[in-house]
Write a structure and sequence with these properties.
By secondary structure, the protein is α/β, with parallel strands linked by helices. It has helices at residues 8-30, 45-61, 76-88, 107-113, 125-132, 141-152, 172-179, 205-209, 254-258, 271-292, and strands spanning 4-5, 35-41, 64-70, 94-97, 161-165, 194-198, 214-217, 235-238, 242-244, 247-249, 263-264. It is built from ten helices and eleven strands. The N and C termini lie far apart (53 Å).
């Protein structure tokens, strides 16, 4: 029997409706419109699409969207100056700098320069530190989307073996930190996992992934996870988004793995829409925190 589909797209619409209600009440109470500033350098097609999707999501939620499009030859100091300007702008509550950046710009330096209270991607070391201690200011968007869909479909995490393939600062590491905590925003049942992180130096990868009750693929390689790497009945979360000649595909060989897994997310329509939904939620949280400061 084919695995049950975990529909992130439909769920994200439900979350968006609730957020729009929350934002409307906040604006009425405080007279403040949550505002997200996105900075995009160059003409990368994938980044352009992602920023447009964020812009649409802002409009639906009642969040003001500011887009700063900079040319490919933008210098590091120019970008830093813009970030500092946005940090000082009290009308801006959330800042994101679209990745990847040009090679001659230090990504870490730019992300570290974003004010922690406006860091809605949760990349700043202060926010990462709070996350590691189990008291997050913001939950990183994609890992939060994963946790949300597990909660939505009542898939327990506590006591389970979670294997995360990929150790990025954006997905692999923060998701592992979230799932290993004693508690979560959804209660202890969505935390308390035994987490294994796999990466490019992991030997006998398939032997490890076949042990997973919940397998998260976040490695950035099209159809990397095959059916032979999945334990029958496992929950498979595909975070990858890869553009190929055949269109968008994930890190999981979807058709084959669906015949083995118990639950699976599609690409597109799985974690991607939830990532944007969580960014909108973080922007609202940032506005609320700053209004109370």
């Amino acid at each position: 029997m084919a695995a049950e589909l975990l529909d992130g797209k439909a769920f994200s619409r439900e979350l968006a409706k609730q957020l729009a209600t929350d934002v409307k009440e906040f604006v009425k109470e405080k007279g403040i419109v949550p505002t997200l500033a996105a900075v995009l350098i160059g003409e990368d097609p994938a980044s352009q699409v992602y920023v447009r999707n964020k812009e649409r999501a802002c409009k639906k939620a009642g969040i003001k969207s500011l887009i700063y499009r900079l040319p490919d030859d933008t210098q590091e100091q120019e970008l830093l100056a813009l970030v500092h300007q946005l940090n000082d702008d009290q009308q801006v509550h959330g800042i994101l700098v679209q990745l990847p950046l040009p090679r001659d710009i230090c990504e870490t330096k730019i992300l570290d320069s974003i004010a922690p209270f406006k860091d809605v991607d949760a990349f700043h070391p202060e926010n990462v530190g709070l996350l590691s201690q189990g008291r997050p200011r913001f939950l990183p968007c994609t890992p939060h989307g994963v946790q949300q869909i597990l909660h939505r479909y009542n898939l327990g995490v506590s006591g389970k073996h979670v294997v995360v393939v990929g150790r990025s600062e954006i997905v692999g590491k923060p998701l592992s930190l979230m799932l290993v905590q004693r508690d979560s925003a959804f209660g202890a049942e969505r935390a308390n996992a035994t987490v294994t992180i796999c990466h490019s130096r992991t030997t006998n990868l398939g032997d490890i992934t076949r042990q997973a009750d919940i397998l998260v693929a976040a490695i950035g390689k099209p159809k990397f996870i095959t059916s032979k790497m999945v334990k029958p009945g496992a929950v498979v979360i595909d975070v990858g988004i890869n553009r190929t000649e055949a269109g968008l595909v994930g890190d999981v060989d979807f058709s084959a793995v669906r015949e083995v897994a118990g639950h699976i997310t599609p690409v597109p329509g799985g974690i991607g829409p939830l990532t944007i939904a969580m960014l909108m939620r973080n922007t609202f949280t940032a506005a609320r925190l700053q209004s109370d400061a």
